[in-house]
Model the fold of this input.
Amino acid sequence: MSANEPVSVPVPGDENADDSPGGQSARSITPQQRMEALRELNRQRTGLDFIWEWTKILAVSVVLFALIRTFLVEAFKIPSGSMENTLQVGDFLLVNKLVYGAEVPFTHKRLPRLREPQRGDVIVFEYPDDMTKNFVKRLVGVPGDTLEMRNGTLIRNGAALSERYVEHTEPDIDPAPEDFRWQRDYLVRTANAASGYHPSRNNWGPLVVPKEKYFVLGDNRDNSLDSRYWGFVPDSLLKGRPFVIYYSYAPDTVDTFAWLTHIRWTRLGERIR
Done:
């Protein structure tokens, strides 16, 4: 047989076709045509391999992202000024979820903690009155602590605290909203409280923090919806501790591209204390 003599090869996909002289199971092609067919098949396989490899990379990336976000680190944005000047509106934070024991989804169980929450920690937690919202505040009272405030000064276990991070924007105003009524159930019955209890934003207590709960305040004491108003934070609602500002910009501007043109460069990478 010469090199250019036609040969009979089976046609892929026609294994069950008629093999009679008039059937379609085979046809005569040249070796050059056969090589071209093999090249086309290889190109198709290469394209499918490429798609499959990228599908695997994407799937692994999604799984890793979900694991990291669930158990290790999650990003949060500061929407209000309740923690100024420690945290500002437009700050983006990375939160360590492992430190207080990340919650295992759908089980209501938590991983072992690296350490217990401590006084002075800035913490992220689910808002007890609406657990679809996340709040960021400073932890000022742990279980067993006795807390009170006199003229805006926080007193813990009988000692007045010097809080360098506290901001007072309205020091001469001391509203007494009805929201403070919850405090009566935790009030230490001192002589002063015996005749009646009339708490205000800057004057309240003394209160005892119950087991497995925490008392939190915003660093901007005159503009913060915190434990003074709605009560204690259950231990089960803690989400983690923010540790760094990875991005920040000034959003209070009419510039549509403020996220790009009003970046606070000096805050990028700043550690949260």
